[in-house]
Known about the structure:
Structural class: alpha/beta
Strand order of the largest sheet: 6-11-10-9-8-7
Mean pLDDT: 94
Strand content: 15-25%
Oligomer: single chain
Low-confidence stretches: 1-5
Number of domains: 2
Helix content: 25-40%
Radius of gyration: 24 Å
CATH class of the largest domain: Alpha Beta
CATH topology of the largest domain: TIM Barrel
Largest sheet: 6 strands, parallel
Amino acid sequence: MSRPTQSRIPLAALCQRLAWTDLDPEALRTLILLARAEDLGGWGLRTRRRPRRAGDVTTAAVVDRGRGRAELRARRPMVVCGLPLARLVLREYGGGRARLVPAVDDGAHVAAGALLGTIEGPSSDLLQAERVLLNFLQRLSGIATHTAAHVRALGRSRTRLLDTRKTTPGQRMLEKYAVGCGGAWNHRLGLFDRVMIKDNHLAATGATRGDRLATAVATARARAPGLAIEVEVDALDQLPPVLEAGADIVLLDNFTLPQLRRAVALVDGRAHTEASGGITLGTLPRLGGLGLDFISSGALVHQSTWIDIGLDWL
């Protein structure tokens, strides 16, 4: 078999950064309405367990009519993410009478104490909305901040840092948007936009080695024309048949540093390379100099923590 040329798909076409305008407003509204129904009406409970009296009983009991104003402030250095969503949250409380005036944009790196924005409107609307608003904002800013730390650890390498599909069900696109705000890139968005042949696919078809592995890749190419073909390998001897079959990307799973160096040399530009498994802030600086095209890590999302943001009444 003749040696294939380098992958026909350019590197830039194999990753992306979701922009806010890529997100579906109706899907976002659905998330917000579910969160609102959960908070005010016990959504998620069986009917017999739901409250007889729905709503914010505390605000109704102690707050008279009137308008309020509050500031959103960073409690620690952070990367901001979720302000456009916070604006949508306010729209769903009290018929949109409350509003947010942002002081920064998503993706901004801010110091502790920085003003993120000001909210104003009927006091009852602000008090009802504040927890849901902060839940989204703190979660997404936490992902963006955690991602930015990994991007810094990778340094000036040409290697691009990617997320994975390890996301909160129903909130994947929001979380991938947050990863982009933190300076990393998005891997595939779902099962629909790339053929990604992983170890379990190969095990299910008995195609883990040799000609059967090459045939599996060739079959995927024929059945999914126009889509990138990525193949996960966990041993160096799997590389030759994958390359011979013309895979666009080889995913080098849980390889040691010496194995990754050897793998990049064996691939020799015939496919794009991606390392995954055991990626940490400590290993990223060493991985950045290996000549990999991509490094992917689910930890950007699933090991992130919420970040403290204050809502201070004025």
